[in-house]
Description:
12 helices, 39% helix, Rossmann fold, alpha/beta, Helicase, Ruva Protein, domain 3
Amino acid sequence: MSKIGSVGFVQQALIKNQFKIKKKFGQNFLTDSSILNNIVEAAGVTKQDAVIEIGPGLGALTEELCEKAGFVLAYEIDEDLIPILQDNLKKYQNYKILLKDILKANVEEDIELYLKEYKNIYVVANLPYYITTPILIGLLSKSLPIQRYVMMMQLEVANRICGKPSTKEYNALSVWIEYRAKATRIMKVPRTVFVPAPNVDSAVVRLDVYDALPIVAEDETIFSFVIRQCFAQRRKTLYNNLCLKYDKALIQQMLLDLDIAPSVRAEVLSLNDFVRISNYLTQNNK
């Protein structure tokens, strides 16, 4: 059982270090060792692998990762947590804490500096709720040598990431993630296992990044724009949403050429459909 991950340890550590939890950083400390173990197990981490952790907090998940991984590179934005982390993890040598904002860090450069000897690199993290989507998009948009992501996040966001066509959870983020990785929801996590308890439940999601994209958008910038536009107003048809930004005659011809009904809504389309639409507009929009 993880000492750092116990309720008593978290409470004592906060009191001992006179640490004030900062809402602006979305700080909620996980206190259930079985969930910590499940996260690491879902990642499939071994001593041959390196792990990137985002927001290590007091080090509960970091401790589990140091036990299983070859090396852990942790990004922490709160400088007040650094000495606490170093004290909690003093028995380990296979980690490095970077005082950096992950949204501004040059992750590719850091990987080259600290993790280049490892073949497999995974991201394993309890993500701050308020920047979950920017973190995911920021990392997955880059050509980083990261094969897998296992992350705790707000339940609602997890459901959207794993959303399937013809469900209320399916949206532009679902499509954008599916284009790059296979998403699997591992487990739901109740709000009661955090200190302090957040206002919502969480979930653990695993993303297995494709070695090669199964289907390719000719222009990924246009692809990202198109899927956002298709879901701009869910009640509107695909035709009406696209006509807000594109010429009506072009959209009419595209739907005819691609054999897509003008009355269809974005929520019923597949990834393949969105890539076809994106590629058509890339080739024909002047």
